[in-house]
Amino acid sequence: MQFTAKQISELLSGTVEGDENVQVAELSKIEDGKAGSLCFLSNPKYEHFLYTTEASVVIVRADFVPSQAVKCALIKVKDPYSAFSILLEKYKEVMSQTANRTGIEQPSFIHPSAKIGKNVYIAAFSYISEFVEIGDNSKIYPHVYIGDHSIVGEYCVIHPGVKLYNQTVLGNRITIHSNTVVGSDGFGFAPQADGTYTKIAQIGNVVIEDDVEIGSNTSIDRATMGSTFIRKGVKLDNLIQIAHNVDLGSHSVVAAQTGISGSTKLGGNSIIGGQVGIAGHLTLAKGTQIGAQAGLNFNITEEYKQWHGSPAQPLRNWMRASVIFKQLPHVEQRIIKLEAAIKELILININK
Fold first, then answer.
1. For 103-316, CATH number?
2. Residue 320 above 80 pLDDT?
């Protein structure tokens, strides 16, 4: 399908500078742009590509003024990155062969007590257990398991291989990618006098609120009692471990290979980098930002503060320490030379 620059600008509430009738049929990166493609410029360090790209249309900021002549049409919007993400989603909808599928494929199992909403798609080899509820317009792909008394809201997309254990509750417009497990037992074992461990029953559940997206191969444990909460608008990367009774604040973002231990509460709008380890029973203030590979084992009370390192420390302190750490080999050599000079002075004084 082809669209003109004018049609795209109207969709994005932008304005066109250049030929508003030029047509595009695909999306591309600005450095790879070719005739008939559309791309965006958000990061200033890529501006030089604007003057060489063959793309027909480029989305830029409303206040952007090119320093050289450009061959393409410009669509000026408030936020190019967000605007392009809207186009990517629209493109995905058009290109997806299963985006508009509905109905129940066979072989699949749906318990007679389950309630299935309107325009739902349930793919072959899915298993829907007793008293499950699936809301209107949701899509369940192959090899998905949904356990007893679970609830899936409206417009949810559950990708192949996802497992939702008993009593899991999903809100509306949730996307869960392949092979993620929601509601598996929390890591609870009581040490015994003889050195063995006795399993503590995990009788809670997981509640995921509206507009959450969860990457593939992520595990979210059910609560020991009560609920593990993933609040509204949270975005989780692949390969993340969320332990029992965690409460992950609304609109927070967590990158891959992060582990959050049991009963920890993260304030809303937090940003957690990759491979971060967070200890249990902590409370982190709203807007907390933790850099990649950091380790955290204390409460954070100040909102919107940046942390880095293991053990974590305020970002500025960590940056200063990093500079010193890089100089340690040089400092060591200086100390060795100073020690040698001191010994020599001592010997001179003794000989006197």
1. 2.160.10.10
2. yes
